[in-house]
């Protein structure tokens, strides 16, 4: 019933569910063809239709179905990981003169017991002890988060000030734990699902932690350099991982071929032979 409301397909669980519902409404639904479309996206993108050999479906009928899908005027469906209605743990103002942290913990002092209950009542006394313990724990939590947030902002000050992730410095949970004299498990719990508000932008604390490539640069920076080099490589002779190692060395980045391959795969960039084939097909 809800999916029949405007826009057609709203409340779909994912993109495929959204597309399938609209195809059904348009009378273009075919469960077999749609499942092939859903399960073989990479093959379709690479124009590889050999998977059809295992089905009693011609290449022509399947490509016609893909054309139907492409030609439909689908209402845009957006999958977003952006948190909605998030209450940040702190509000931070950052500028060229430094930064200020205002913890969002005013609610702690605003907490109170029901004043209508007689203070000499036994139940009141029991709840008062629990209540005071709760406020103490919430205050300690806020103090711990302040230490964690202060260290993260101090480390990532340049990157946050310029809104440039490439300027984020290497920072791990263990580094924070050592810096604020807390156990790593405490840091893990502290940054999990916690957000801070910086100059009108919302940041997840975990996104400000950066895996180090070495003590001076982050993996983010090395990956950026790999992307930049490949983006400007000659189409007829794409750079091998060994060549990438040489170019990175010129940028004072010492790295092994195996690590380059690892970062390249994490960036979902194909190897030089595969890229050469793609360039040729594109031309």
Q: What does it look like?
A:
This protein is an alpha+beta fold. It has helices spanning 15-25, 31-39, 41-45, 59-71, 106-110, 122-155, 157-162, 173-180, 184-191, 219-231, 241-250, 257-266, 272-282; strands at residues 90-95, 98-103, 195-198, 201-204. It has a four-stranded mixed β-sheet. A hairpin with a 2-residue loop joins strand 1 (90-95) and strand 2 (98-103). Helix 6 (122-155) crosses helix 8 (173-180). The radius of gyration is 27 Å and the shape is flat. The relative contact order is 0.07.
State the main characteristics:
single chain, 4-stranded mixed sheet, 283 residues, 13 helices
Order of helices and strands: HHHHEEHHHHHEEHHHH
| Helix content range | 40-55%
Number of helices: 13
Number of strand segments: 4
Distance between the termini: 48 Å
Task: Give a quick precis of the structure.
The chain is of the alpha+beta class and 283 residues long.
Per-chain topology:
Blueprint: H1 15-25, H2 31-39, H3 41-45, H4 59-71, E1 90-95, E2 98-103, H5 106-110, H6 122-155, H7 157-162, H8 173-180, H9 184-191, E3 195-198, E4 201-204, H10 219-231, H11 241-250, H12 257-266, H13 272-282
Helix pairs in contact: 6-8, 8-9, 11-12
